[in-house]
Design brief:
two-stranded antiparallel ribbon, about 450 residues, about 0% strand, 16 helices, mainly alpha
Length: about 450
């Protein structure tokens, strides 16, 4: 008897082969995207080294060395259907495009500055979703282990920078000129590590801290020697950095550990052991003179800054709220479409005045409203807060299920994504990276719960 499909078994085999071929193409594309994300990560860590030591003559173009990778990853993800379309992504892209026109025709009028400012919305924020789509949980953990490993030579470098004069090669500034250190305490300078400026050093070790606390709770998933070495590196890095921001970042991460106990009582014993371990390591290291010296410099910096900024309350208000309330209060003082995207960046100020300065506001929220105007500026702030709320909610649900990874990454993400200075390339890079890693870590059955929201 004849049918329209005389060989149904061959048809099924053909269909399976077609599906398998498509899956292989997707896997191959995902593998390429993952390599691109790793390249973005390493360039984030070593972009400053290239600008200071390797090719200082190319310091200016290397400022945006990660941008071509971000563009390529977004294009490849979109082409392969791996870039999800959601409201936040569309709105950020729309504001990025509109802000270029308003900056050129109503604001400062410089197309180059407008593109430089808009790239934050057009390239780096979407990259969070690319990382979230391409990376698996195992990739997030692997990146964490690499981060712990890198923290060991990194602390050796900042120790050398700390005790070396600012004229030494390790302390040379961007472009091979001046120095990369920043005033600290007792005549010592805050080291910049492999980054262009000191902000990269404190963000890197705060990033290390979020991973370190996770691995301390899950010590069986990482090499014990690596875990111990990274713990020592982080403890030493705190005084060597002479950075109050790093200190507060780590306090927040530890508070997140405490909060984890409220969702899972089995963490009580572990956090007690972790606390004793960190205290023991700190007590042992404090016997060495180089650690004692750095602690004295850090303490002097801490006390002096607290006095000049009104004590602890002043420090917290300035560092972590970043002029948020003041920016909202003064929003009516800016033009409706702002002064133009990019004008509040160091690049924008240099191209306009030939000097690096804060032409609009040192605080992130003030910069956004000043550049974009009250309507678009407040919209971006609300969207950043909305994105932060979504990843926080998803991370908390994971914590309730006994998964600590996204929760500890969130301890770093909530201090960078809502109000970090995205005009600064290193801060933007760490915000992009942590946002993507949290998205990847909250995946369920290989499908993220946030990508399409």
């Amino acid at each position: 008897m004849f049918t329209n499909q005389p060989y149904p078994h061959k048809v099924k085999a053909w269909n399976r082969a077609v599906v398998s071929s498509k899956e292989m193409q997707i896997d191959r594309s995902t593998g390429i995207i993952k390599k691109g994300i790793w390249a973005y990560f390493f360039l984030l860590l070593f972009e400053g080294a290239l600008r200071k030591w390797v090719v200082p003559s190319l310091a200016t173009p290397l400022l945006v060395v990660r941008d071509p990778i971000a563009i390529w990853l977004i294009f490849l993800s979109w082409k392969k259907g791996l870039l999800p379309a959601n409201t936040l992504l569309v709105l950020f892209t729309l504001i990025g495009i509109v802000s270029i026109y308003t900056a050129v025709f109503i604001g400062h009028g410089n197309l180059l500055i407008a593109f430089y400012g808009a790239r934050i919305f057009l390239f780096h924020f979407p990259l969070m979703y690319v990382i979230g789509s391409a990376f698996s949980r195992s990739d997030v953990i692997k990146l964490g282990k690499v981060t712990l490993f890198l923290s060991i030579p990194m602390v050796m470098l900042i120790a050398d920078q700390f005790f070396s004069p600012q004229t030494a090669w390790v302390n040379i500034g961007v472009g091979g000129e001046g120095s990369s250190g920043f005033s600290g305490g007792m005549g010592f300078f805050r080291p910049s590590a492999t980054f262009s400026f000191t902000i990269g050093n404190h963000l890197f070790f705060a990033f290390v801290g979020s991973y370190l606390f996770y691995f301390l709770f899950n010590s069986k998933t990482v090499n014990s020697f690596l875990l111990f070495g990274a713990s020592v590196a982080l403890i030493i890095a705190i005084p060597l950095s002479i950075s109050r921001s790093l200190f507060f970042h780590l306090i927040v991460s530890f508070i997140f550990c405490i909060l984890a106990i409220t969702r899972n009582s089995r963490y009580i014993g572990k956090i007690a052991v972790i606390s004793l371990l960190l205290i023991a390591i700190t007590s042992f290291l404090s016997r060495y003179s180089f650690v004692q010296t750095s602690i004295e410099a850090f303490t002097a910096r801490f006390e002096h800054a607290n006095e000049s900024e009104g004590g602890l309350n002043g420090v917290l208000a300035d560092r972590y709220f970043g002029g948020m309330i003041g920016a909202l209060y003064e929003s009516s003082n800016y033009p409706f479409f702002g002064h133009g995207i990019g004008m509040g960046t160091n690049v924008g100020s240099f191209l306009i005045t030939r000097q690096r300065a804060f032409l609009i506001s040192e605080g992130e929220w003030g910069r956004l409203i000043g550049e974009l105007g009250p309507l678009m500026g407040l919209a971006v702030i609300v969207m950043r807060l909305g994105f932060s709320y979504k990843i926080a909610s998803a991370s908390y649900r994971k914590l309730s299920d006994g998964d600590l990874l996204p929760w500890m990454l969130l301890s770093f993400g909530l201090l960078t994504i809502p109000q970090a200075q995205w005009a600064q390339p290193t801060a933007l890079g760490f915000s992009t990276l942590i946002g993507g890693l949290i998205l990847a870590s909250v995946k369920k059955d290989n499908n993220t719960t946030l990508q399409n929201n």
